Amino acid sequence: MKKSIIAGLLAASVSITGCGSSSSGEGHISEEQSRKTREMLAESKRNAQQVEKLNELYKETPDQILFENNGQNSAVYKELQQRYKDQLAELKKSVEATGAKFVVAIITPEVGVAISDFTRYGHPFIRQACNELGVEYYDLGPALATQKPTVITQMPRDGHWSKAGAIFLADQLEPIIIKYKDHRSTAVYKDSERPETFGDLAPSTEEVLDGGKDMPYKVVANAQGLRMDHDVVFPKKQQHVLFLGGSQFYSPFLDNEFIATSVLAQRHPDIEMMNAGMIAGCTDDFLSLWEEKAKYSEPDVVIMQTNGTDITDLFFTNRNHLARSKKPYEPSPVEEAYFMNRFRR
Fold it and tell me: Following CA atoms 68, 72, 74, 77 in sequence, which dihedral angle do they give, to the nearest 10 degrees?
């Protein structure tokens, strides 16, 4: 999603997941656990060093320039589109393997008079990819285009949701919630399989952030790293709906009580609305989060928020700056050729 609001919004947190028992007694760490921890820390250090090296070699993060010639004659944009489609297909397959319903919601306030190239070129491709993959999707662009940006967002100070915008977003998502209120997944995990967190927020925290814009807002994260004010309990007794998305679900500059998923939770107290939104997330991040831990929240319905920026966010330099995995992304031959021609001529 948008890079300009990243700085200062979120402190990175690292959580070592898994809760296996120790062979040497409760409260002790086995030698095997210690070995795995040392290996993980060593790998993390190597990755950080390689990412730093790549960021020195490839500093620029092109975005709109990829849309030259309407984006259709750009080899690198086509490669990013294919990467997006492959990740979407993999996420759909993995979600549906649990028996959960997978739904895509195309959401961005950059429509209508505020339309951007991300929307203009990205949304038609996303709709086409969903159709070809058999993914049910809801394009909220037309509905959002009828609204005044100064009402549904915090413009001119910031382009993210206002309180009114969050309510409007909840209104648009509610038909999906109602349509699948009786859907149930088949996956059940043991407590020993379940990681400590399902989302990437620092667990059991309450902090005030301002994103460097002097717009303070309170973020409350439950013990499982989700943006909600209570913990998810197991065995589950109500339907679980998981929201995977970027800042449009995370909703910076709004207190927890005002974000769209909290509005939906108030309207449907019989459903557990689990918000795993993250700043600057894209399909690459949603897929890794799902596989690593989000799926263990046992969702019955998964709603993935996306928009055109998710495609360009897959460019290797953007990944090295933003990816939640913190792993190094080497350029493909097509990306390398584009980058050298654009920035090293």
Answer: 100
Q: Is the Cα torsion angle 37, 278, 300, 304 positive or negative in sign?
A: negative
Which H/E stretch holds residue 141? helix 141-145
The closest of 192, 195, 220, 194 to 207, measured between CA atoms, is 220
Name the region of 25 (left: φ>0; alpha: ψ -120 to 50; beta: rest).
left
Q: Give the per-residue pLDDT at 20.
A: 37
Please, are residues 246 and 279 in contact by the beta-carbon 8 Å criterion?
Answer: yes
Give the pairing type, strands 205-209 and 217-221: antiparallel
Residue whose pair of structure tokens reads 């030698």 in the numeric block = 31
| Residue 336, token pair as written in the block | 């390398």
Structure tokens at 30: 């086995």
Segments of the chain scoring below 70 in pLDDT: 1-29, 69-73, 345
pTM: 0.88
DSSP summary character for residue 60 = -
How many whole angstroms separate alpha carbon 259 and alpha carbon 8? 20
How far apart, in whole angstroms, are the C-alpha atoms of residue 138 and residue 228? 24
Integer angstrom CA distances of residue 13 from 181, 201, 214, 232: 33, 7, 23, 20
For 95, other C-beta atoms within 10 Å of its C-beta total: 25
- The SS3 call for residue 11 is coil
How does pLDDT run across 255-283, given as a tens digit for each residue? 999 999 999 999 999 999 999 999 999 99
Enumerate the domain spans of the chain.
Answer: 87-311
Lookup result for tokens 């459903």:
271
Asked if residue 30 lies in contact with residue 22, where contact means CB atoms within 8 angstroms, the answer is yes
